[in-house]
Amino acid sequence: MSEQIQTVVIGAGVVGLAIARRLAMSGREVILLESEDAIGTATSARNSEVIHAGIYYPKGSLKARFCVAGNRMLYAYCQERAIPHKRMGKLIVATSDGEVPALQGIAERAAANGAEALRLLSRAEISEMEPNLSVSGALFSPSTGIIDSHSLMLSYQGEAEDHGAMIAFMSPVEGGRVDNGVITLSVGGDAPMELECKELINSAGLGAQAIAAKIQGLNPATVPPLFFAKGNYFTLTGKTPFNHLIYPVPVPGGLGTHSTLDLGGQTKFGPDVEWSEQIDYTVDKSRGDGFYAAIRRYWPGLPDGSLQPGYVGIRPKLAGPDGGKYDSDFLIQGAADHGIKGLINLYGIESPGLTSSLAIADHVLEQLEQG
After folding, report:
1. Which backbone phi and psi does 65 adopt, to 5 degrees?
2. 262 falls within a domain
């Protein structure tokens, strides 16, 4: 016999937790299914922990909309609930005279997106803010920051549970079907069961496509491809050289090798982009030479032997290195896209997913209430 519940959310990463929280707060009966034994064990635990400003994304894209809104929502949320974070700002740096004109275009795109205004810095300001930098120009983004992502996820979890949501760990979704407006899931684990729901939110991150492909009644043509973009991070031994986040002018295929800080003061560099056929969280030490060369474009004083392998994140991309049908935006499909009322699939939720989490959750609730 099947268990029945109004709403199921799949995936207890930062976005799934935000969605479960928002839907529970709306009065829904919610269960959150997670295949692992804890929250945020995959993409949400392996990122830069940066609160992004919404600078680079195309105007009108979901990434631009949700990042700009999410940035403001997230800072307010963190302040209200004492989530560890720091609005430290970042410098976008031109490492050569030829890159300087690109800074104006970046500032214009940020303004078009509604992000907090960027400011072009003079050479004197750059030297005062970051004496270890050696660059030709820089923009300052005041609303970029860092956050303790695990504390954020624990807060989302706690508020979801306070509003009646339940979380079932070690509960992988093994299949599903749609019949007469009811979605039935086959859930594995130590206590296998069938679970009937009216609303299903597939926020499984790297596993979203695989889960969607298992739902009988969902047109397979609506499920986009998945590409694994492996990002290696290297950490710096010794004292941090910077007071802000440092991002080079973007290069084709990524944002370059940037320098970020965590709340403990540890400097890390990355991620790079290494396309992979599988999920592999092993840092490729051989890529270290490339990191030294990239970092020294803006920090020539990087000492030899000062980088050590850090960790790896995997970004769920909808297009590979050669492009494809889908662009680099988030893809959030509801009934208007696939014809199944109550089903929302979230694909390609990579950066700035953490920053956008509260805005994405509001969007999912709006889609459900619009039918």
Report:
1. -65, -50
2. yes
pLDDT in tens, 203-231: 999 999 999 999 999 999 999 999 999 99
Please give, one letter per residue, the 3-state secondary structure of 30-87: EEEECCCCCCCCCHHHCCCCEECCCCCCCCCCHHHHHHHHHHHHHHHHHHHHCCCEEC
Q: Return the H-helix or E-strand segment holding 157.
A: helix 149-162
Q: Give per-residue burial for 284-305: e unless 16+ CB within 10 Å, then b.
A: eeeebeebbebbebbbeebeee
Q: Are residues 232 and 312 in the same domain?
A: yes
The pLDDT score that the predictor gives to residue 371 is: 75
CA dihedral 333, 158, 66, 75 (to 10 degrees): 180
Q: How many CA atoms lie within 13 A of 42 on its CB side?
A: 24
Within 13 A of 259's CA, how many CA atoms are on the CB side?
29
3-state SS, residue 360: helix
Q: What does the pLDDT read at residue 255? A: 62
* Contact (Cβ atoms closer than 8 angstroms) between residue 150 and residue 265: no
Whole-model pTM: value is 0.97
* Mean pLDDT to the nearest integer, 61-76: 98
CA atoms within 13 A on the CB side of 97: 0
Alpha-carbon span 119 to 141, nearest angstrom: 7
- Tell me: do 205 and 187 sit in the same domain: yes
Residue 161: pLDDT over 80: yes
pLDDT value at 253 more than 60? no
Domain that holds residue 357: 3-46+150-224+327-370
Cis bond leading into 101, ω under 30°?
A: no
What are the structure tokens assigned to 131, written together?
């004496």
User: Per the structure, how many domains does the chain have?
Assistant: 2
